[in-house]
Amino acid sequence: MKRITITLACLMLCFLSYAGQAMYNDLAYTIDEIAQTAEVSENRKVEGALRLPDEISVGQETYRVIGIAENAFKGCKNLTEIVFPKGLEYLSRNAFEGTGIWLNKENWRDGTLFIDSCLIATDKTVKPKFVVPTGTRLIAAGAFQGNKVLTRVELPATLKRIDNDLFRDCKNLTKVVIPASVEWIGQDVFVGSGIWLNDKKWKKGSLYIDGCLIAVNKDAPAKFVFKDKIPTRLIAAGAFRGAKQVKTVTLPAGIAIIPVACFYQCAALTDVTIPESVKSVERMAFAECGLLKAATLPKDLERLEAGAFYQCRNLKQQSLSDNLTGIPTACFTLCSSLNTITLPAKTQIISDGAFAGCTNMEDIMLPATLKTIGEQAFKGCARFRKVNIPAHVTEIKKGAFSECSHLTDVSLPEGLYTIDDETFMNCISLERISLPKTLYRIGQNAFQNCQQLFAILLPEQLKQIEDEAFMECKKLYEIQLPASLFVLGAGAFSTCINLTKVITARDSKLTSIEAGTFYNCRQLQDFDIPDSVKTIGEEAFFGCKNLKQVTYPIRLQKIGANAFRDCISLVTPMFAKDVEIGKNAFKGCK
Asked: Which helix (H) or strand (E) covers residue 382, if one does?
């Protein structure tokens, strides 16, 4: 169990880093399906002048381009000019390091590099008392980082965002005025700066600047109370990060955002009181708060981001706002005590790993509006017994219900066209499932080790059964392969030890029985191989001890090594000379 938990944790971190990749006009983007936004990700072969689009289209969906990620264009020496999207909200300094824009000295003026009215970077020739020009759209994350010349910075009154690492390690910086227009402050903005290093700036373990809580340290009290004299209007991202002594927090009325990683790894935190003014809980806000019991979300919450309650092992129940249309990636992953949650009536997306590892959660009611169930969305939800998939779901993604060990009954809708890889893998109690007529693909390991699955009717339009799809389904006793099937993957029914009968169609489209397809199906008694089959793969019927009769196809060209080995009830047949027979293909036969 410990190994599985560690694997889940690693997979969820991968989801948080890499989910939602897309290409548009030869540029790579990371997309947020719930927020309908896109971020420009790493692109290393961009040349000349570039105009980034205001929005991109992926399939039938449109996404607003709002960000440029770290390293996005780093090292593109031939990138000479760029125009940003109108709705750009953030960008990173190192996204442009080593580009033609960065290396062109003519683009640097008075120690600053501006691109399309955005301040990207500064150097040692900047003025110590620097005034950011009025009209500056954005300031890149880390734009002033490590600049030892600066002593004072005046930000423009229109600035809405102070991004990550902006003044980090500016050791001589003693004064920054945060204008009232600022709505968001990132992580580690002042770490290592003159302000941060000045002990007099810290009061009772807290660093405040102009009514904004920047950070708390080890001297912060266990019962944290915000200042009353100066109302707290903002909390910086990661402000409480790693504050292992803080146990309870009552957030101040009026704040709108609980920012990125705000309480990340607050190991002693048990209770947080959230005011109704909060509209957004951002990425990893309460992640790895292992003792957190209660964090009641406002009824009017508009946004909940990826990993918000990741690995909150003591969280038992959570209510969600009806404003939400999706459950984001890894939102409640490894919340092993979570037993009650009601999904909003408007939910359309349950993203990758959203409830993975919620081992105590009972059966969940999926709303009729649901369209997408992400990868490993409910992996390891061991108490699930029945699942009813709504009518609008057309695809169940990889591993969505894998390791739901008590799941016995699943209802699938007409209109579902694919059951992806590992979808019901290791659902050891699954007894029955009715496959819709619209289904054309069953993915790799989709039903592997469904030990109680005793019968399944394959739809007439099914075209693909991928590798090891029904491997180790030990109670499965009969299968009828439809004529439309043209892919029957390696090991598809291997170790189905009670499979007695396989019915094939005369007009079958199968051309190959792959390696190990019926390996160790020891109760299988006879098999009529369709005339369309030209190849029987290695170990295809290895260990089928009760196989007595096989009808071989007219067009057969090749039988792989060990194909019928240890089929002790089978008489070794005679073939025409042009049939290639592999080593030990019939060893152990009569």
From this structure: none
Tens digits of residue pLDDT in 380-410: 999 999 999 999 998 899 999 999 999 999 9
For residue 506, how far is the Cα from the chain centroid? 43
CA dihedral over 245, 248, 251, 252, signed as positive or negative: negative
- Rounded to whole angstroms, what are the CA distances from 188 to 150, 171, 174, 198, 580? 17, 14, 16, 16, 68
Residue 108's DSSP bridge partners are: 113
Contacts of 530 (CB under 8 A, 6+ apart): 504, 505, 506, 508, 510, 553
> What's the pTM value of the predicted model, to 2 decimals?
0.90
DSSP label at 96?
S
| Chain Cα centroid distance, residue 499 | 37
State mean pLDDT over 324-333: 96
Q: Which of 531, 491, 489 is nearest to 508 (CA)?
A: 531
Round the average pLDDT of the chain to a whole number and report it: 94
Considering only CA atoms, which of 97, 137, 107, 145 is closest in space to residue 119? Answer: 137
The two beta strands, 223-224 and 248-250, are parallel
Which residue in the block uniquely carries the two structure tokens 């029987």? 536
Please say if the pLDDT value at position 151 is more than 60.
yes
Three-state secondary structure readout of 117-130: CEEEEECCCCCCEE
